[in-house]
Amino acid sequence: MDIQAEPYRIKMVEKLPMLSRREREEAIERAGYNTFLLRSDDVYIDLLTDSGTSAMSDEQWAAMMLGDEAYSGSRNFFNLEKAVRDIYGFEYVTPTHQGRGAEHILSSLLIEPGDYVPGNMYFTTTRAHQERAGGNFVDVIIDEAHDPASDHPFKGNVDLAKLEMLIKNVGPERIPYLSLAVTVNMAGGQPVSMKNLRQTRELCSQYGVPVYFDATRCAENAYFIQEREEGYQDHSVADILKEMMSYGDGCTMSGKKDCLVNIGGFLATDSAEVYEAATEIVTLFEGFPTYGGLAGRDMEAMAVGIREMVEDDYISHRVQQVRHLGIRLEEASIPFVQPVGGHAVFLDARRFLPHLSQDELPAQSLAAALYVESGVRTMERGVVSAGRDPDSGEHRYPRLELVRVTIPRRVYTSQHLDVVANAAENLYRKRENISGLKFVYEPSVLRFFTARFEPISGK
Ligand code: F0G
Hints:
The protein is an alpha/beta fold. It has two domains: 21-50 and 312-455, Aspartate Aminotransferase, domain 1 (Alpha-Beta Complex); 58-308, Type I PLP-dependent aspartate aminotransferase-like (Major domain) (Aspartate Aminotransferase, domain 2, 3-Layer(aba) Sandwich). It contains 17 helices and 14 strands. Strand 5, helix 7 and strand 6 (211-214) form a beta-alpha-beta unit. Helix 12 runs parallel beside helix 16. The longest helix is centred in the C-terminal third of the chain and has 20 residues, at 312-331. The chain starts with 20 loop residues before the first helix and ends with a strand. The structure holds ligand F0G. Ligand F0G is lined by residues 49, 51, 98-100, 123, 125-126, 181, 185, 214, 216, 254, 256, 265.
């Protein structure tokens, strides 16, 4: 097997805290068994998220010194705008403080109460903004995406029949746009094929439905196309990304992922009308349209990151490093979502903890247990993240009950990931001892962030 070493070297280091098992038990209890509520000082290897956790390059740090902190018309904005035009191909861009800022603007601009917003699986903040604007999210991803054992190479694909049925049932005028994620976070970081993007675009055009990407991890999606889709092996990731984006009318973007920055995002569109309307809302909620809640230096770092994210060496190592963890877990027979996605390995908590029912919150329990075992922080992506149905008030029971082991970009070495795999293996051997959890505090929106739990007694 070819060994692919990190395509960068380390210039600055940060010490990792190491607690004893006893201290970790106390820490998770204090955190209400919710890994989001742990203090980062209590965490050894932090795989909670790849969001805002990237290591910036020397070029990005240098760019931070070039901040033009003018209230309006900062030169950093124009550099960002040019990077978005060059790499994504969209004409108009307005920065936002992060991805959900852009989601808020797009949703409140385009969605009317009672509308239907189809998407290839929900994402928490995206759907929350769509529902807040009065929309109903409708999942139109292919069935394979809900099956953790399916090894479909493009599990993020849109099911064209489901989409067309929705358009026919409710009428295209009730569908403000298709929300198209590349890659699909909640499905396990799974990509969408170029063929599917093309066909989805054709179908939407036929009915006059706009397509807006959630482009949060689009560079990773482009890499999967280069790797897996016939005819793209000789194309650069940059060219593939440009073609992908050409099938949309615009995008919302969390710069905290692919763009390799710790904060930032943007809304981009080819529509002068949408852009103009967006600038009004941006001014109200984010800031003047040429800064949108960001400092000039943050925009400059994002402009540099956007160009770095499509460098072939970087993105290839990025995705392969995540896969390396998958291979190690596979060797230990630990169940996880196949194939390994672009930003994370998703442990299959149903199969890891078959003795727990979904009401006993298996993924939440597994994430807490993995922390106690090893100091590795991960997050729940299952019934807790799915929240309650706004109409019935009942839990939503997603088929996927997962623990996301998310790899920050350029932060950990592959040896750190070997430590993670060992910890998961040790835990797997004593999995019968892991008890379920129950809610003791449940917030009404995005409950996974701040909910508190306690072990179900008697187990
Ligand atoms: N879309 C996707 C697919 C995301 O994964 C996220 C954030 C957002 C939108 C919102 O962007 O955080 O910049 O406001 N995902 C983070 C995560 C929180 O850990 O997966 P944001």
